[in-house]
Structure formats: C-alpha cells, structure tokens
Sequence to fold (703 residues):
Amino acid sequence: MADSSWLTQFPQMERADLLAIRKSLDAAYREFSRSYGDLIESFFDPLLTFLIWFEKLLLNTPWWLVIMAVTVLVYVASRSWKLSLAVILSLLTIGYFGMWDNTMRTLSIITVCTLLAIALGIPIGILMARSDRAQAIVTPMLDIMQTMPAFVYLIPVVMLLGIGKIPGVIAVVIYAIPPVIRLTNLGIRLVDKEVLEAATAYGASPMQRLFGVQLPLASPTIMAGINQTIMMALAMVVIASMIGVKGLGQPVLKSITNQYFTLGLFNGLAIVALAIIFDRVSQAYAKRNQQHMQGIDNA
Amino acid sequence: MPKPEQQPLIQIDGLYKVFGERPETVMGAVKAGQSKDQILADTGHTVGLKDINLNINKGEIFVIMGLSGSGKSTLIRHFNRLIDPTEGQIIVEGTDVMKFSARELEQFRRHKMSMVFQRFGLMPHRTVVDNVSYGLAVQGVDKKERLDKAREWLETVGLAGYEDQYPSQLSGGQQQRVGLARALCTDAEILLMDEAFSALDPLIRSEMQDQLIELQQSLHKTIIFITHDLDEALRLGDRIAILKDGELVQQGEPVDILLNPADAYVEAFVKDVNRARALTVETVMKPPVCRITADTIGEALTQMKRLPGNYGYYVTDEGYQGVICQRTLESEAKLDGDSPISEATLQEVPAIASDALLESVIPETLETDFPLPVLDADGDLQGELSRASLAEVLGESHTKDNAA
Ligand SMILES: Nc1ncnc2c1ncn2[C@@H]1O[C@H](COP(=O)(O)OP(=O)(O)OP(=O)(O)O)[C@@H](O)[C@H]1O
Ligand SMILES: [Mg+2]
Fold:
C-alpha cells in the first residue's frame, strides 16, 4: 500500500526540486541586483542627497531654534496654545534625557517618508477612485503590503541597495503608504453624488471636478489616511534601524540585544511623543479646516 | 401647443432609460409593454423612462409632474446629459446633444443650461457667495465680476448678508434659494428646476413663483420645472406633462389637464385642486353673442331683437362701453329712435379681466343679473361669464368628490 501514502503525508514536492527553485530564483535576483543595483541606486541619489541635507539641517540648527520653528508650525496648524506648549515641553524633556540628536534624525526621516507617501499615495488613490479596474489591481497589492511581514520585503531591498537610508525609506514607505491610498480612494468615492452632479451640470471639466469638488470634499477622509500613514511610519523606525537607519530606533534595537530596559523605554517613549505630536497636530489642522463641512449630509 | 412653423427648443424623441447592469438586454421586454414592476422582478433592471416624446418651445415654462419615483428627475437629467439615454434622441436647438464631444458638452452645459437640484447639491466647502458664483468660476470669469454678480442674485432671492456663511449654516429653504441663485447667476437660457421650491415656506414660495414668472417674461428664459404640487404647476406652467412609472400619460395646457384628464391617474392628480384658484376667467368664459355695435337707439333695438337674450354689450371703436337692456332701449326708442346711444342708456355692470382668477370674480358674478363682460388688457370685449358656466366648472370637482 505504498501508493496511498499521500493520504497520511502531504504529497509535497521533492526537496531537491524546491531547493532548485529557490536557488535559481535567488540567483536570478542576485544577478539582477548586481547588474542593475548601481543604476537603481543612482536613480535614488537625489532623494539621498535631500535626506542627508535635511537631517544635517535639523542636527546643525541650534536646539532652541528647532523648538521655536516646530512650535510655530504647530501653532499655525492647530491654533492651540495648549498643544504648542505641550510640544515645547515634550521636546525639552526629550533633549534633557539626551535623545535630541536621535530624535532629529527620526524626525527628518519620518518627514521625508510621509511626504513621499503622500506624494505617491494620493495620485494612486485618485487613479483607483476613477477606475474600477485600477481599484481591482491595486487593492490586493495593498493587502500584501499591509500583511507581508516587513522583514520579508526588507530582504530584496537590501540585496538591491545595500544597507542605509534609502532602503530604510523604501521599506518605511512601502509599509506606511496603504492607508493614504485606501482612504483617498474611499474619500473620493464617497463624495455626495448630487454635489458632483452639480459641478458637472455647470460644465466643470474633469480637472475642475477633481480639484474643486472631489479632493476638497474627500479631504477629511484623506487627512485620516495621512494621519494613519504617519503613525505607521513611526512604528517602522525600529525595524528600519535594523538596516542602518539612524535615529531613535537604533538605541531600541541595542537595548533588545543587550537587555537595557530603561534605554529602550526612554527611546520608545520619545517615539510615542513624536507620534502624539504628529497625530494631534494633523488632527487639529484637519478639524479646523473642516468645521463647516460637518452636518451637511444634505437635507 | 407646439406651433408647426416654429422649431422647438428642446425635442425629445423616443427616449428610453433603463437602469441596471445590461440595459440593452431588457429593451425588448420594455418595448413589448411589460410593466416596470414585472421587469424589475424578472431582470433586476429598473425602467426609468419609457418612450418619452416631448417638444419644449422657446420661452415657455414647461412643468413636469408625477408621483415619487415616476421618473421626473431622471427625465430632467437627460436634458444636460447628466444621464445618458438607453435609446432615443435629445435635440436642443436642432443639435443632437448625444453627438457632442466632451468639450462641446462642457461648453453646452456652461452656457446653455443651468440646473437647480432637488437636494440642492451645494458645495459644503464653499461659502454661499462662492457657491452662487460657481458656474461663472467654472467658465473662468474673473473673481470680482463673478462675486459682484453672485451678490446681486443673492439679494434677489432674499439672502443678502449671508454671503460668507457656509451652506451648513443655512436652513433648508435658504439652501434651496442659494441653489436657485446659483442657477440664475450663469444667465443660461434654459433653466432646469428639479423641485426647486419644495423646501420653501408658502409665503416665500409664492414670492419665488412670482419672481420666476417675471424673470421668464423679462428675460425670455425657457424653464423646465418639476413639481409635486399641482397648484404650483397650474400657476407656473404654460404646459404640463404628467409622468407615471416612466411613461408620459398626458401633456398639454393646464386647462386641458384640469378639464380633460386623460385617465384615472391624472384625474386623481387634479381632483384636489382648487379650481377657483387655478383657472382664469378666460378658460371658462363663453364667446360674447350679444354684441351691440349700432350708433343710434333704433339700430341698437333692431340688433337686439335678432339676439337670443334681452341684453347686449355695447361696443364702439374705443372698446367695451357698457350693457344695454332691451327694456331700456324699447322705452327710449319710443321717445326718439334716432338719438345716439348715451351714458344714460347704458347700465353699470362690473367688467372683469380675462386673466383674473375665477376666485376673484365669484362675488361679482353672483351679484349681477347678466353674464359679466370679460375684457382683455386693452379693454376690448373678449367674452362673457355667466353664473351657470361658473357653477358648472367649479361644481364639477365636487360631484366627482362625492362620487368617489
Ligand atoms: N441611478 C439609478 N440607478 C437605478 N435606478 C434609478 C437610478 N436613478 C433613478 N432610478 C429609478 O428610476 C425611477 C425614477 O426615479 P426618479 O429619481 O427620476 O424619480 P422622481 O420622479 O424624481 O421621484 P421624486 O419625486 O421622489 O424625486 C425610480 O424607480 C428609481 O428607482
Ligand atoms: Mg426627483
């Protein structure tokens, strides 16, 4: 009865075959990265230059000037003294506990990643909202990006680009971009049909409809997506630090390997503080801009 | 009635609209005359409109009526192609709207038609004045000019002072007036109004109706107006079309609809209308048989004797002068048959205007023994209104009520 062994044991592929597949795929990819790695890397050069410049800017500016600038930004966005004061206090505390430089590094990479995610994500979201086919193609890709463990897509990125800032940014963007895409798509699709019809009836062109009606009306939803994206980018800093992104993630990584609980806690709290600042400021900004849009679900 | 020599402004030919996944597959069933409910149950497709043929003339107010779900909004959305028909033609000023390119369609919507929406369709992120000037903004009119114009129209609809509010800060009726101002602001020749007055209180509503009529008369706009309210339809409409389940059951002048309903559906529609308030004298008056045009008493008496009644309306080149009684003539003829007809011969009888509502002439009609003379705006005799014809028209609805 040797024939029916497939009933008790999964009829799996021969080990040798599996190994061959893995080997040939790996080899092919290695070959690809060897021949195109430099080209792709040079493609990202401008981004790298910008990243370095921005990080240096934050690091070389005197701390009090940075705090002042951040506070002004926060106040302009939120118009709230309470929030601005809280931001000053938390930044001072972070600096006092010796985490200033790392915080600036993280701040710079998060800012760049978020801007990149928004710049790529909103157009993709718009495309999805306009075409059901685009939506059908992009949605499963987003599902993969959100559920695939980050380590898995770190591998090819590192193979291709080595260790450093750029692979870190790519990994963070891949991880953080889905919410802004999804919510841009959703927000545009949920725009009141009659309002859009009104724009059409008055002869608005597709661009006038997009920028004059769809995006402004979808903006609360899009803002929620951006907010999520920022949070997810911050959550990625520890993983990104594994491939050489400097910042608050590295001390955390170090404390995991060396069991320094307090060091880990402090840096973790600094990440949380940044997250809360980003979150509250972006929410306050969104709320202020959308006050009059509440409660008009049309009579 | 569409006059044959005049080309209609908007012409709808054999228009069908079926909503659903694959409308063309059910067109057979629709044309075979299956009912809307049957088709929905069998195929999941909704018949929105079925074989609509309409002509709308330049400068008229064309009212579309029908119960909820009868396809009024669907029909009006075809005029500016917010909805594309499943089959049929839409021709505006001799041009087939279906043949427009995307750009031509935009231009057409910008300059030819503007629309008031049933649920207002205001943009919540724009202030009232920005909403009103939206049409002009789309056209690229410069900011100062369009805001000035928008303010003017806001004032016309009674919303001066609300310019910088957001729609969510206004009441439903105020929002509706913003929608109205927005439609008027582009100066389009054709106005599509989907239940444009439904959210207004009676007072403002009647004010807006007056304004609309005035506007139509002064600017010669063509207005397509949807309403549920027959009184409103009768007041505004030059012609009325009645839809039922996507089909056109009757179209015609208000009087036609009121006095000769095509079927039980239309009859039910018009049953509750206050005829005294809906009909004008013109529609029920009889032609004036007893017209006296003589110069002297004697000639007048001769004319009078040929007439069926014992009274006559004395008419000269200057128009209607008064009523003459046979008895007065006879007694005066005995004195001097050749004397001219003078004031003294004539009897004071209130004359009524042909465009007055029946309601307003009921007291006079009841108080006077003769049928009242009906005059047009120039003072010329147009007809006569008797107690009997008044009673007949006003009584009709009652008898039907009782029968029902
Ligand atoms: N986008 C759509 N998809 C499917 N069916 C639709 C759509 N729009 C309208 N219909 C159907 O078409 C029919 C007519 O709808 P329409 O909105 O024209 O009615 P209406 O006469 O304007 O009613 P109301 O007086 O309530 O506004 C309804 O049966 C409705 O279900
Ligand atoms: Mg409707």
Notes: The mean pLDDT of chain A is 89.
